[in-house]
């Protein structure tokens, strides 16, 4: 194992980032939950740019930029909970809050997964981490929509979920996971992406630019029982307008996608 690790630090807002070297964590420092990943690909997110230019009250500088990584497992503490899931050499992707732009990244084993096929390159797998984490917290977190969890062959719940911005990064993940939990997903996007979102599992897609989209979507939701609205991309006001236009009392979670939308 190499003795040093190159790390990109943002020391303060408005100054260029600085690359510094530091020692890799030992097995004891990795502890019970962390896996050391040798990175082969990083993903860029809008929040990475924001942390360079905007002072956020909940961020303490200096900070290591980067959220999404993909690579191979370099080390894991023997006998740890992490070692029960991952082994040295596994191809993996994962999410880390402001700690990703390093050659070697320690990841919490619950926020990473094995890349399911050797045919999937690292550059493709790396985009999943932050998007699926964002959408999963919003859909299934107990403090958010708190939907039923997805599982293999989940029975139909008889309820719908609205994913606004279904062709965005977070929206694409939300459609698949909500469908996997047994919900009928209704979504919005550009007409050119209708086939794409339906291929992910959406049962109905609406043009988000339509002047009647709020009324049309609310009418569709009112055909049955809506479990909630997830605002994956776009203006938060749209989710509130749909909720107000519906005849139901519809909960919504207006957490925009942290990745630039492709709606």
UniProtKB/TrEMBL annotation:
The keyword Manganese does not apply. InterPro entries: ADH-like_N (IPR013154), ER (IPR020843), GroES-like_sf (IPR011032), NAD(P)-bd_dom_sf (IPR036291), Trans-enoyl_RdTase-like (IPR047122). It comes from the Eukaryota. Residues 17-263 form the Enoyl reductase (ER) domain. This is Chaperonin 10-like protein. PANTHER family: HYPOTHETICAL OXIDOREDUCTASE (EUROFUNG), ZINC-TYPE ALCOHOL DEHYDROGENASE-LIKE PROTEIN C2E1P3.01. Belongs to the zinc-containing alcohol dehydrogenase family. It comes from Apiospora aurea. The keyword Disulfide bond does not apply. Keywords: Oxidoreductase. It holds the Pfam family ADH_N.
């Amino acid at each position: 194992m190499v003795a040093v690790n190159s790390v990109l630090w943002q020391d303060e807002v408005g100054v260029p980032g600085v690359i510094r070297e530091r020692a890799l964590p030992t097995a004891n420092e990795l502890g019970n939950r962390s896996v050391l990943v040798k990175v082969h690909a990083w993903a860029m997110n809008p929040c990475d740019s924001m942390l360079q230019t905007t002072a956020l009250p909940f961020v303490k500088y200096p900070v290591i930029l980067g959220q999404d990584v993909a690579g191979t497992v370099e080390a894991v503490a023997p006998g740890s909970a992490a070692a029960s899931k991952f082994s040295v050499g596994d191809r993996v992707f994962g999410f880390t809050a402001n700690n990703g732009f390093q050659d070697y990244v320690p990841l919490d084993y619950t926020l990473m997964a094995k890349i399911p096929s050797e045919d999937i390159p690292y550059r493709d797998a790396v985009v999943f981490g932050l998007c699926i984490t964002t959408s999963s917290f919003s859909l299934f977190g107990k403090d958010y929509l708190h939907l039923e969890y997805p599982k293999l062959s989940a029975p139909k719940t008889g309820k719908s979920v609205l994913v606004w911005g279904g062709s965005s990064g977070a929206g694409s993940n939300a459609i698949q996971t909500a469908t996997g939990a047994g919900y009928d997903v209704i979504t919005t996007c550009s007409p050119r992406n209708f086939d794409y979102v339906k291929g992910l599992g959406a049962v109905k897609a609406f043009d988000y630019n339509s002047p009647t989209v709020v009324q049309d979507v609310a009418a569709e939701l009112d055909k049955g029982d809506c479990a909630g609205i997830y605002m994956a991309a776009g203006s938060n006001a749209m989710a509130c307008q749909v909720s107000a236009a519906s005849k139901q009392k519809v909960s919504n979670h207006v957490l925009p996608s942290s990745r630039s939308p492709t709606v």
